[in-house]
User: What shape does this take?
Amino acid sequence: MNKKKSKSIVALLTLTFLSLTIVTIAACTGISAMESNDVEELPAIEFEDVSPGDWFYRYVAAGLRFGIITTESGESHYFEPDRYVTQGEFITMLGRLHEYGHGVIGTPDEGGDYNERYLEWALENEIVHRYRYWDLVPSSLITREMAAMIVWRYIREFELLDYFLHDEIMVLMTFDDFWEISDWAQGPVERLRFRMLVFGRGWNFEPHDTVTHADALQILTRVCSGVYDLVFPLRPILRS
Assistant: This one.
C-alpha cells in the first residue's frame, strides 16, 4: 500500500470517528438544529419566568405556536418550567399537538390540568392503557419512561415513523442506566434516542424521574417539528 493511499484511509477513519463522536455527544446532551436557531426568529413570549437565555425558550415558543400550551388557562403569566407534569397533563398536551396537526385550533379545555376528552382519545387509539404498563392515574406525576412510551406509541399508532427515518443515525453508546429502564420502556426509549427525540441528563436517562413542564415541551415540540418541515414557519403535512 503506497503512502498516499495510506494517508487517505487514515484521514477517512479520523473523520468517521469525529463524526460519530459528535453524534454521540449530541444524542446524550440534547444538541440539535433546534438549539441552533437564532432567538430573534422566534415569536415573543409573555411568560414572566421565560427569557431568551433559557434553554427551553424556543420550546416554549414552539409549544405556543403548535397549541401544545396556551396562555388562556386563567390569569397566570408564568410558564413554571420546573413544575412536574401529571400523566393527564402530558396526554392533554399530546392531544393538543395532534389536533393542531389536523387543523383543530383553539379547542377549549375543561378546568384543571388535563382534559378528560384527551384521555378518552388516547385510550381509544391505544396510545395508553389503563393497567398494561402502569396504572393510569391522570392526577399522578408522569415519569420519563412513561412519557417516552406514550410518545412512541403515538408515533407508531398514527404511522408517523416515516417522518423520523431521516433522523435515524448511528449512535455509539446507549444510556449508562439503560438496565434501570423498565422492560416495557427499553425499546421505545432506544428508538426515540436513535431519532434524537429523547435525551439523557449527562450520560443517564433517569427513567424513573418525573417530567418537568420544560422537559415535556422539549420532547413534544420535537415530535411536532419532525412531522412538519420547519418549526418556523410551519407547513402542515400531518396525515389525516
Summary: The longest helix spans residues 3-29. Residues 46 and 77 are 7 Å apart (CA to CA). The helical segments are 3-29, 33-36, 57-66, 87-101, 116-124, 144-157, 183-194, 213-227. The chain is about 45% helix and 0% strand.
